[in-house]
Amino acid sequence: MTARHVTHGQEGLVTRFAPSPTGRLHLGHAYAALQAHDRAAAAGGHFLLRIEDIDGTRSRPEHVAGIIEDLRWLGLDWDGEILFQSARLTAYQAALDTLQAQGLLYRCYCTRAEIAHLSAPHGPGAVYPGTCRHAAPRDDLPHAWRIDMARAAALAGPLDWHDELAGVQRADPLAAGDVVLARKDAPASYHLAVVVDDAFQRVTHIVRGRDLFEATHVHRLLQQLLGLPTPIYRHHPLLRGADGARLAKRTGAPSLASLRAAGMDGRVLADDLRAGRLPIGFTLPNA
Ligand code: GLU
């Protein structure tokens, strides 16, 4: 064939599944992985796997092996090498340096207990009250790095992002407060690492659960400050148990490993999830 075809598909589309290896995958993860995989497959694009293992205290190599086994059992394959966040620490440091040079970071010396106490009067989910924002720097104390969100938002100006299901969103990073970007015990927080790596892996469409919708306001801001492209988002609804609660390991969501041990066929399960046929006791609300 000599003529080159001009195509108008989305074959350059790239999605990813980015689990943290802190336990075995459950049905909710299976649903999320299928959503990301199928979004790419439908467009003739690429589906990547990233292991978010920067939390050295909770990540376990045996869970990485378990994740790979579980995805294969579902009949899912990914393109290229798996990216491990634990191998990306210099990239996170470079991003921190860029933000630091813009005068947007400050050291936070607060302990977990202090933060719980400081935020308690403002109710659950209250944002960090900025206690260390003007603290004198101390080299003898362990510290996290937080972003001065008001300053960062003012510098970046108004920002939008697009969700394939919810439409255009005006970024509201202030609602998250001065989030941590580098932790005392880990060189990058989830927010920083995810933004740096999605750009590094050239992810064009971020397909993930609705529970991360609010985090995207922060991610959009970080993309702007770091000069990174903004992907398109698709925050899918979350699978829920019979009690209406979202699935989580700690609330007894069955692991894929246990379903396999009970004799379930992973590919059949995958097709059932795709068709919205959920195992008894599970629901998928639209909200
Ligand atoms: N690692 C995150 C998690 O397991 C997901 C990150 C993302 O999809 O942005 O919840």
TrEMBL record:
Keyword rRNA-binding in record: no
Similarity-based family: Belongs to the class-I aminoacyl-tRNA synthetase family.
Annotated protein name in UniProt: tRNA glutamyl-Q(34) synthetase GluQRS
Limits of the Glutamyl/glutaminyl-tRNA synthetase class Ib catalytic domain: 14-255
Source species: Sphingomonas hylomeconis
Gene3D superfamilies: HUPs
Ranges annotated as spanning the membrane: none
GO molecular function, one term: ligase activity
Gene that this sequence comes from: gluQRS
This protein's UniProt keywords: Aminoacyl-tRNA synthetase, ATP-binding, Ligase, Metal-binding, Nucleotide-binding, Protein biosynthesis, Zinc
The protein's Enzyme Commission number: 6.1.1.-
One Pfam short name: tRNA-synt_1c
Domain of life: Bacteria
